[in-house]
Design goal:
CATH topology of the largest domain: Jelly Rolls
Helix content: 10-25%
Order of helices and strands: HHHHHHHHEEEEEEEEEEEEE
Oligomer: single chain
Largest sheet: 7 strands, antiparallel
Number of domains: 2
Shape: elongated
CATH class of the largest domain: Mainly Beta
Length: 288
């Protein structure tokens, strides 16, 4: 019995850590009422917006009506939702998010001073990521300088970037060494995240020309959601004119996952410094 309880706790821990994926999945709609309660009431549920909880519950409730043999009516849906509403962290929601709720649901929710921990990338998630790998071409390097486009790319399905494997050749690390991901569009680009490479845990490698090579798996502070068929650009800046990136080559454009194939398209002639993307699938959006 103790072993079963321990297994249940570990499963719940993983579900909570991957809450931003679990709540968007079809599997959530199949859960029992008790399981949904265990997830929704936990302050450690790892999500970026409390609106995700409402959206998940609004998908789950009609399915629960069917399982209970009840008609899918507004009254029956509200009846299924009612036990959960007092646990939703309503105070964490912006006015815009609140306005997205159905009026019937909004009228049943009251402020409750409940809050959740901020969205993050826990250690446990790294063991469940898929990796898109690149190999290093030892013959070519490029100075980062004022700006170096490391790669432009898009995926055929939406997913969450969790970590980035990066390689750089420097004689001495600059204090400020940003790596930025930008979402490109016809009208305006938007910044997805910026990380300071100088703060990463680097592993020393062989010398590359007059510099030493360093490699690191950089775990993002928060999962970064990438939209399908949208072009993103990753670039770095080094004002010290000291750092170089070796050229890398994509090993395969396709990664087989539990939910199907994930394909990447490259929109730049060369790739610099990137040796891997660690990602988690946005379940339900992957093509078989």
């Amino acid at each position: 019995m103790y072993a079963l309880m321990s297994l249940k706790e570990k499963c719940l821990r993983l579900i909570l850590d991957a809450g931003f994926v679990v709540l968007r999945s079809k599997a959530f709609e199949m859960l029992s009422k008790d399981s949904v309660m265990d997830i929704v009431t936990n302050p450690c549920l790892n999500i970026g917006s409390e609106l995700m909880v409402f959206e998940a519950l609004l998908r789950w409730a009609p399915m629960q009506c069917c399982r209970m043999g009840n008609q899918v009516t507004e009254a029956n849906i509200l009846h299924e939702l009612e036990p959960f509403l007092k646990y939703v962290c309503f105070d964490d929601m912006s006015d815009t998010e609140k306005s997205a709720l159905p009026a019937a649901v909004l009228s049943c929710v009251e402020p409750n001073n409940r809050n959740r921990l901020p969205l993050c990338v826990p250690d446990t998630l790294m063991a469940y990521t898929y990796c898109l790998g690149f190999q290093i071409d030892q013959e070519y390097t490029e100075l980062i300088a004022d700006s170096l486009c490391c790669v432009r790319f898009s995926f055929d399905t939406s997913l969450y970037i969790i970590g980035i494997k990066f390689v750089v050749a420097v004689s001495e690390f600059p204090h400020h060494f940003p790596l930025t991901l930008v979402k490109e569009s016809a009208t305006a680009s938007s910044n997805m995240f910026t990380i300071n490479l100088a703060s990463a845990s680097w592993k020393e490698g062989l010398h590359l020309n007059d510099r030493k090579r360093y490699e690191a798996l950089i775990r993002l502070r928060q999962p970064c959601h990438l939209e399908a068929k949208t072009v993103y650009k990753m670039y770095s800046v080094d004002r010290t004119q000291n750092a170089q990136c070796p050229k890398t080559q994509l090993l395969s454009k396709t990664v087989l996952t539990e939910w199907g194939r994930v394909n990447i398209s490259l929109h730049s002639q060369s790739i610099w410094g990137i040796t891997g993307f660690h990602f988690i699938c946005d379940t339900g959006s992957v093509s078989k």
